[in-house]
Fold Cysteine desulfurase.
Amino acid sequence: MIYFDNAATTRALPEVAEKMTYMLCENFGNPASVSVMGLEVEKEIRKAAEILANGIRAKEEEIFFTSGGTEGDNWAIYGTAEGYARNGKHLITTAIEHPAVKNPMKHLEEKGYEVTWLGVDEKGHISLEELANAIRPDTILVSTILVNNETGVIQDAAAIGKLIKEKNPNTLYHVDAVQAFGKYPIDVQKMKIDLLTMSGHKIHGPKGVGMLYMRKGLKVRPFILGGGQQKGQRAGTENGAGVAGLGVAADVAFRSMKESIEHVKEVKKTLMDGILAMSDTQVNGDGLEEASPYVLNVTFKGLRSEVLLHSLESKGIFVSAGSACDSRKKIGSPVLTAMGMPYEEIEGAVRFSFCRYNTVEEAKECLKALEETVPFLRKINRQR
């Protein structure tokens, strides 16, 4: 099996599974309990929080554990909207956000908030000038994705954060770092980030656990109310096993980040160069050096991505469609649409996403399968 769908989810590390088994079967106390068992679990949770905080230059007390990226994004947005309603009801985001950001923003619009949706250029970058013009005295939040989940395009978080604080120091900056955390250097101090979300299963950790970094002193409202766990900010008994597993995965990711980036870049380059050598193909978004090495979005013109996806799957190669298209309505990926791509190019978009355990040999094997499959599918398509 060749698994090139790591932006969707990753295989958990053996040491993560081992840690979680230990926590579930032996160190299984309730961290809210004052018993020895409870205190041992609390110690594991604080250790994980310290690992996560150190990796982004935050403080351990600024780390809050969630059920994943979606909860974290929702908490950052709704919590800011409620906590800062007196400051204003204007928010800013982009046309290329994940639904976990986009849909809460749309919901707030229905409740009377005003949302400015920033466009992007043909590569998928927002305009800093457009952002500057959009920030107002009543702007309470700007939310941008760091590494786009479909294209791998990287927004300049440091420039965005600096601009926000220059235009309105009271405006909070939220970053969706689900595809960036542990794979791209993040410094919440230099980037002037107030809120940041991540998800464990994108970095070889467990599903169902994630993190919200929330800068100390913010008035963001709790999203889940109850027994007052996590300093009263996120109620519910902490997922000790998941959090401990997340800590292990994050520790490995941070320690191997530099080497992983270089290795994955070679895997991506091998596959990308080979695909571009084929006829009627194009990379969507930035090139190798500018985009994340972990994501490659390619259009195979004259094909439907779902057909190619299933053909590769039959050969034991797993990728994903670059968009969820409705061929009858001619509706494609909102991300690629926002980049100005015509439907015919969006229809044939495929996303390959990598991890540090993929190999150049796998890329070559995938390329061989594409060289056999793509011309055959195009021939069939022309005959219809």
